[in-house]
Design a protein that fits this description.
Blueprint: H1 8-11, H2 32-48, H3 50-56, H4 58-65, E1 71-75, E2 91-96, H5 99-112, E3 117-120, E4 133-139, H6 148-158, E5 159-170, H7 176-184, H8 186-193, H9 201-207, E6 211-218, E7 223-229
Parallel strand pairs: 1-2, 1-4, 2-3, 4-5
Antiparallel strand pairs: 5-7, 6-7
Helix pairs in contact: 2-5
The structure holds S-adenosylmethionine.
S-adenosylmethionine binds at residues 32, 35, 39, 76-78, 81, 96-98, 101, 122-124, 139-141, 144-145.
Length: 231
């Protein structure tokens, strides 16, 4: 899985800091150390909240990630929540930058009784060969990546040309009052969770090299399911 040889496809996505953000997001970017620290504290809580996640987001995860086939790379897999929704016939590989989250993901794979591989890795420079996964999935993650366009560029690079990239992202609500509340609390939320919760995931994907194929937005306009193909 390691030794990335050809970085041409990801190099195309390198952009100056701040680019790729919407007017609402400002320039909030954590460092990888900030992210590791935050998720070290939150890993066990996030694993405990899986039942709530299943209730709120489970059906969207199932609908989208149930379409994953072949070798599947889950970028920023966190506590391994998506493993439950990826078909058993697929080969699951999860990567994340947080060792504590990966420890929870390992426990989740064992609980589910499914095989899989986990590795500590930065989504913005994946130690994965070009075109090596039939499906790349990621959820609730672009809001935390310091450089989300670099991470989308890497997903584009490691996905087979005929493969698919499935993203389940949250963003600024289309319900204006809720959206404004998110804007108002954006700094405080970022401080606590390293998460830009008023981002616009569709705008982000449209600025990346990925080719957007389908999208649908649910749950008060907060959750967006995206199917894209490598561009
Ligand atoms: C809100 S959690 C989502 C986890 C999981 N995908 C889910 O849907 O439950 C965000 C995850 O992104 C990971 N993350 C943030 N920046 C990352 C990076 N640059 N590379 C890899 N993982 C990263 C965090 O460690 C955390 O596990």
């Amino acid at each position: 899985m390691t030794d990335s040889t050809n970085r041409d496809r990801s190099a195309r996505t390198a952009r100056p800091a701040g680019e790729g953000q919407t007017e609402h997001e400002g320039s909030r970017r954590g460092s990888l150390d900030d992210i590791r620290e935050t998720y070290a504290e939150q890993a066990s809580t996030m694993a405990r909240l899986r039942r709530l996640d299943r209730l709120l987001v489970g059906r969207y995860r199932r609908r989208l990630f149930g379409r994953a086939t072949g070798r599947v790379l889950d970028v920023a897999c966190g506590t391994g929540t998506n493993a439950e929704y990826v078909p058993e016939t697929a080969e699951y590989v999860g990567v994340d930058v947080s060792p504590e989250m990966l420890r929870e993901a390992d426990a989740e794979l064992r609980r589910l009784g499914r095989g899989g591989t986990l590795a500590e890795m930065d989504a913005q420079s994946l130690a994965v060969r070009d075109d090596s996964f039939e499906t790349v999935i990621s959820s609730l993650s672009t809001c935390t990546f310091p450089d989300p366009l670099a991470a989308l560029g890497e997903m584009n690079r490691v996905c087979e040309p005929d493969g698919q990239v499935l993203l389940l992202e949250h963003g600024r609500s289309s319900v204006e009052l809720l959206g404004r509340l998110q804007d108002w609390r954006a700094d405080a939320h970022f401080e606590k969770h390293r998460c830009r919760w008023n981002q616009n995931p569709l705008a982000l994907v449209s600025q990346s090299d990925l080719a957007l194929r389908e999208s649908s937005t649910k749950l008060l306009g907060v959750i967006t399911a995206i199917r894209a193909e490598p561009g």
